[in-house]
Design goal:
The complex is a heterodimer. By secondary structure, chain A is an alpha/beta fold. Chain A is built from five helices and eleven strands, in the order E-H-E-E-H-E-H-E-E-E-E-H-E-E-E-H. In chain A, about 25% of the residues lie in helices and about 25% in strands. Chain B is α+β, with helices and mostly antiparallel strands. The chains are: A alpha/beta, B alpha+beta.
């Protein structure tokens, strides 16, 4: 399987994502510039964390207009997997590929820690390797991870099983402890925690690797 | 040439932790009369338009397309000849 890791000016988790795929998962990932306009050769897209365009205006607000985003939308519309982690999640909501917004953490602190997450929905292409309600350990590192959406949207997320991960201990004020959601079709996942930083035991855990293996399971079955 | 002054703030229903933090800091400086603070963004936009109506239309459009996240922010603006 061939993934594109999108590198924006200010991305800083792009190489973590690249090595998670190439070394830990054993699949192929290319580093692709945000100026690129063609992703047709890829089976999936990974939008990494960082501070794209310096988080100017709002996190993800400028990245949304990068040339590559049209190609990302095209790939998402084709039903291929699109994963946005941390700033990648912020970009996906600003681009309208996922509902809601990410606000400042209620504590006003940047939080860097390991977060226990519950796998609320294990029937997605990103979570089929976990068991339902399994609690996994994945790092978080963000200042604006406080997920917000209005009540009607929240109800839709629940009705359509789009809430995939929740925090066991809410670190940032997210509504309904939301840590990660998919789009309605289930092929676009945005999450604040960093699965690519939990792919080897030397990093502190391998729970994140199961997410990438789940994508492979789905594509190969 | 027109000058638009655009003010973007959190919707009242949305928690504004930055405003809260600034208020708490002012309280620590003994400005006890400060009741609440809402922190937002201010844009000064110079633009060419054939009329004030056309300028307003462009300002409305740029607010919706980029300057404002309508999930959590609200906005108002003034447009003057400048």
């Amino acid at each position: 399987m061939k993934f594109a890791v999108i590198s924006f000016p200010g991305s800083n988790c792009d190489w973590d994502m690249y090595y998670a795929i190439n070394d830990a998962l054993g699949e192929e990932a290319d580093m692709v510039s945000s100026e690129s306009t063609d992703l047709d050769q890829y089976d999936g897209v990974l939008i990494p964390g960082g501070f794209s365009y310096g988080d100017y205006l709002r996190s993800g607000a400028i990245a949304r207009f990068a040339p590559v985003m049209k190609a990302v939308k095209k790939l998402a519309d084709a039903g291929k997997p699109v994963l946005g982690v941390c700033n990648g999640f912020q970009i996906l909501v600003e681009a309208g590929l996922l509902p809601g917004s990410l606000q400042n953490n209620t504590s006003m602190e940047f939080i860097s820690d390991w977060a226990p997450l519950k796998v609320v929905n294990n029937r997605t292409m990103f979570t089929n390797g976990y068991s339902k309600d399994q609690v996994i350990k994945v790092p978080i590192a963000h200042g604006e991870g406080n997920y917000y959406c209005d009540d009607a949207t929240l109800q839709e997320l629940k009705d359509n099983d789009q809430i995939v991960f929740t925090y066991e201990e809410n670190p940032n004020g997210s509504c309904d402890n939301i840590a990660g959601i998919t789009n309605r079709a289930g092929n676009v996942l945005g999450m604040m925690p960093h699965p690519e930083r939990a792919v080897e035991s030397i990093l502190g855990g391998t729970d994140g690797l199961t997410l990438f293996k789940s994508i492979l399971n789905q594509v190969r079955s | 040439m027109y000058l638009a002054k655009i003010y973007v703030t959190h919707k009242p229903s949305i928690l504004d932790p930055q405003g809260e933090a600034v208020k708490n800091a002012l309280h620590r400086l003994n400005y006890t009369s400060i009741d609440s603070i809402s922190q937002g963004k201010f844009f000064e936009v110079k633009l060419n338009a054939d009329s004030k109506d056309a300028a307003v239309k462009t300002v409305e459009s740029i607010c919706k397309d980029l300057l404002v996240n309508q999930n959590m922010e609200t906005y108002r603006y003034e447009v003057e000849e400048g």
